[in-house]
Amino acid sequence: MATAVGTTEAVTGELQIDLSQTPPLLGDGSFTVDLMSLTSDQAGRDNSVRRELFGDGRFPTATFVPQSLADFPAQFGEGETVTFQLVGALTIHEQTQTVPWAVTAVWQANTLTGTATTHILLGDFGLKPPSLLGLLTVSEQVRLDLQFRLQAVE
């Protein structure tokens, strides 16, 4: 079994976290990913995924709306690594599920940078794993990784 990695930089959105509060308060925000821009190392697989999973553009985006923070440390300092969960509503293919993301981040120079990871089941979003000529198939479970950089607003 090989692991295919699809990537995109077509992510837009914002997140508001008030770090002056204990625990931090989560404000408005959402993220949108252009699913049609996902690419891997095989164009044939990319075309199959776009066609079978995203309906050749009928469902071109995924949206995540943060709803809560969990396990955020009461205090942390400049340069320290923090881990917490960011829970929210993920919408793919017009289906919405509550999804927890495991976040690891560092606060430095008024910027929070890090990664967020979650696992989803395609079936939870009404999606059937595609197959390319019966030779390559996509697993029902998919890992999503997001690298982020959040800049403080003063």
Description:
This protein is mainly β and 154 residues long. The mean pLDDT is 88. A hairpin with a 3-residue loop joins β7 and β8. The strands form two sheets. A seven-stranded antiparallel beta sheet has the order 1-2-3-4-5-6-9, with no helix packed on it. A two-stranded antiparallel ribbon has the order 7-8. The protein has a single domain, classed as Lipid/polyisoprenoid-binding, YceI-like (Lipocalin, Beta Barrel). The protein is elongated.
Strands of the widest sheet, in order across it, are 1-2-3-4-5-6-9
Rg (CA only):
17 Å
Which strand-content bin applies to the residues?
A: over 45%
CATH class: Mainly Beta
* Secondary structure tally, helices: 1
Proportion of residues in helical segments = under 10%
Please count the beta strands (DSSP E, at least 2 residues each): 9
Please give the domain count. Answer: 1
Q: Any idea what the CATH architecture is?
A: Beta Barrel
Mean pLDDT across the residues is 88
Contiguous runs where pLDDT drops below 50 for at least 5 residues: none
The rounded distance between the terminal residues' Cα atoms is 48 Å
| Annotated CATH homologous superfamily | Lipid/polyisoprenoid-binding, YceI-like
Q: Which structural class best describes the helix and strand composition?
A: mainly beta
Largest sheet: 7 strands, antiparallel
